[in-house]
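Recall the central idea of this unit: under ordinary conditions, the amino acid sequence of a chain determines the structure it adopts. In this exercise we apply that idea directly, starting from the sequence alone.
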Amino acid sequence: MSVPSEKGAEVGRRIGVGLMYGLWKPRVLGAWKVPTHGPVILAVNHSHNIDGPMVMGVAPRPTHFLIKKEAFVGPLDPFLLGIGQVKVDRDTTDRTAITQALGVLENGGVLGIFPEGTRGEGDFAALRAGLAYFAVRSGAPIVPVAVLGSSDKPGRLIKGLPPLRSRVDVVFGEPFEAGDGSGRRTRKALDEATGRIQKQLAAHLENARRSTGR
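Accordingly, the structure predicted from this sequence is:
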């Protein structure tokens, strides 16, 4: 099975950065904290529909996001696959998506995950176990990413999007290890890793809100 294309993800990054800076005013903080090489997982809070394209555009490295299969409709299907994104069926244990995501990390690439699964409050409250599995299995560090827009203010043309030309802050946090160093992948070990991840992500989001005034 082929691993999602890093060249494709770089093309996606260039498209993303053009779109995001054209439509909004991104302010990127802490991008230097993303390791310059080797496998990395970006764990992104999810409160806007633009969170994925925004992070894809402003991240310092090409990123392969796990994206729900429902987004791959019509011409978006070949486009998203062409820019190295990973289609995932959330209603089942999607072995193909898991293998592709692990392949990205094994090749030293960057995997983007919305650990809450679906767009919600964006506060990392409902964390799914997938993030812990990928982090423990691959040994890749997790970099928390907070995308903070003005979704609660009037002026939105489309529900789920910040108002056009409004400022959107993207705050990258310090990388951390999710596992306990033992490499164990038992249910207990993954539950413990999920707890550690949740604390780290919640703390990063709180710090990001404080530092940006969001």
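The first strand starts at residue 25 and ends at 29.
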